Amino acid sequence: MKLLVTGALGYVGRFLVDALGDAGHAVVAHARRTPPTDFYRRAPHGTVVADLSLLGAIDAALDEVDAVVHCAASMYGEEEAIHRRNNVAATEQLLRSVRKAGCPRLVHLSSFAVYGKRRQTGTTEDAPLDRSGDPYTRTKILAEDAVRAADDLETVILRPGLVWGGPDDERINQRLERLLRSRIFVFPGRCDTPLPMTHIANLAEAVSRSLTVQGERGEAFNITDAEPVSLREFVEALARDRGLPPPRIALPLALIRPAVRALDLAARIAGVSLQKDESRFRLLNEPCYFDIEKAREHLGYHPRAREFLGDK
């Protein structure tokens, strides 16, 4: 198949360009700026530089494309206008271009964040979404709404958890390893409750299977690893793999929350914007895992157990 992967400069998009190319697809990589030389392990079939939120910006790149894998999104920052442009307007314009080109299929990467930052115990895809959440959450839900409304196209919505693994995992593996090597890692609470981790190779498998599933129109699927794992288990496994001593110190949440508030106050006095989110610490100490049986049944998704070896 000829595929277009949007957001191909990002961690997930970059991995998918290589993985889908390895699977025999002709992959066109989209980004907002030109990728560096040799950025991809496997050279894509072509590259296109465009702002997806602009009308018609991607039209020419969709010639003879069989499916689009839509990874492009903004994740960080608090300005809702930026999230609306990059997550909502970009998705709406992309859908218009897909229709215009006669491309029949789109795989949309959403996030488990749409369920809200709260306790989850085997949550299924029909659970209510948190439309009162932060700008990222709200705009990811609106993007899903746009995809579901495109009922003339074959569309699949994937909701991965905390994506990790692969050689470019700077957000989780590499960051945690730096903290472990510096001996400054401290658990924020007991951190012994399950988290929804999604190895990037398992996410790539879900994307691959979504390209061929028949008859789907806006169906959403939770995509996580086979077994939930706690932050404590994850960090201890990473430490063992790297030959480092596992961290032993855990600060009570009662001490962490005042420290976060004090840091935020100091930043505001200094005129610096600091993203303060105590709910993240709470979620590291409450069950948060999702049911993936729908993906197993409808997509044939069978996540493999992933080890840290090869992710260095």
Query: Mind telling me the CATH class of the largest domain?
Result: Alpha Beta
Q: Write down how many β-strands occur, each being a DSSP E stretch of 2 or more residues.
A: 15
Termini gap: 31 Å
H-E string = EHEEEHEEHEEHEEEHEEHEHHEH
| Envelope shape | globular
Would you tell me which CATH topology of the largest domain applies?
Rossmann fold
The CATH architecture assignment of the largest domain turns out to be 3-Layer(aba) Sandwich
Uncertain regions: pLDDT < 50 for 5+ in a row?
Answer: none
Spatial extent as radius of gyration: 20 Å
By helix and strand content, what is the structural category? alpha/beta
Number of domains: 2
Largest sheet: 7 strands, parallel
Strand order of the largest sheet: 3-2-1-4-5-7-12
Give the % helix. Answer: 25-40%
Provide the CATH superfamily of the largest domain.
NAD(P)-binding Rossmann-like Domain
Write the layout of secondary structure elements.
Elements: E1 2-6, H1 11-22, E2 26-31, E3 46-49, E4 67-70, H2 80-101, E5 105-109, E6 120-123, H3 135-149, E7 154-160, E8 162-164, H4 173-182, E9 187-188, E10 194-195, E11 197-199, H5 200-210, E12 217-223, E13 229-230, H6 231-241, E14 250-251, H7 253-269, H8 278-283, E15 288-290, H9 293-299
Parallel strand pairs: 1-2, 1-4, 2-3, 4-5, 5-7, 6-15, 7-12, 8-11, 9-14
Antiparallel strand pairs: 10-13
Helix pairs in contact: 1-5, 2-3
